[in-house]
Amino acid sequence: ILSRCQRYDFHRISADTITARLTELMNAEKVNVEERALRYIAKAADGSMRDALSLIDQCIAFYLGQDLKYENVLEVLGAVDTTVFENMLSLIVQGDAAGCMGVVEQLIMQGRELGQFVNDFIWYLRNILLIKTTDDTSKLTEIIDVSDESLKQLTKQAELVDENTLMRYIRVLSELANDLKFAVQKRIK
Predict the structure, then answer these.
(1) For residue range 114-170, what is the model confidence (pLDDT) as tens digits?
(2) 137: helix, coil or strand?
(3) Contacts of 187 (CB under 8 A, 6+ apart)
(4) Buried b (16+ CB within 10 A) or exposed e, 9-28
(5) 112: exposed, middle or buried (C-beta count within 10 Å: 0-12, 13-18, 19+)?
(6) H helix and E strand count, the chain
(7) Is 0.90 topped by the overall pTM?
(8) Which of 5, 57, 116, 127, by CA, is between 20 and 30 Å from 71?
(9) DSSP H/E element including 109
């Protein structure tokens, strides 16, 4: 009977492949979308083409008839730009709790999703950890999947904190991400 069965091994799709496919689809649909926006959607889809298509549909529906910009995608998905993560990490390293609370309050007032912010911040810290622990810098853009400009900025941020501290931050934020899923008052968590 085994000879009559078909076996399909499914794997995650790379962000580059998803971005290329989304670009192809947007060209066919004659929708103008920034490259950065498509890359963010591909990253947010986490290896799933179906999720990427769903996310791009949401964004297009929200900005129907307009060019889709990176900032628009962040707004629709409740996400933030990496400059917020840079600022937040700097505030954390300085021990500025009031500054961190101010950033969180500002995100809430902008209507950003705190769960998404925490997950993206974990991803940001993970990238910094990879920069600090990878000896072969030529492979970093493949591993981290960011632009050269973003890689330079991440490398600069990596100088602020050591590996053990990054691991602690990632662990604490992972627990927070889990707690936020079930929290009624997300601001208090």
Answers:
(1) 888 899 899 999 989 988 888 776 766 667 766 677 778 888 888 889 999 999 999
(2) helix
(3) 104, 108, 114
(4) eeeebebeebbebbeeebee
(5) buried
(6) 10, 0
(7) no
(8) 127
(9) helix 97-109
- Token readout for 104 is 């969180």
Tell which residue, 15, 151, 169, has the closest CA to residue 89. Answer: 169
Ramachandran region, residue 59 (left: φ > 0; alpha: ψ -120 to 50; beta: rest): alpha
Amino acid at 124: Y
- Residue 72 parent element (H or E): helix 70-77
Query: 3-state DSSP call for residue 68?
Result: strand
Q: What are phi and psi of 33, to 5 degrees?
A: -135, 135
Share of the chain above pLDDT 90, in %: 40
For residue 29, the one-letter residue type is E
Please give the Cα distance from 55 to 109 (Å, whole number): 23
Q: What is the SS3 assignment for 33? A: strand
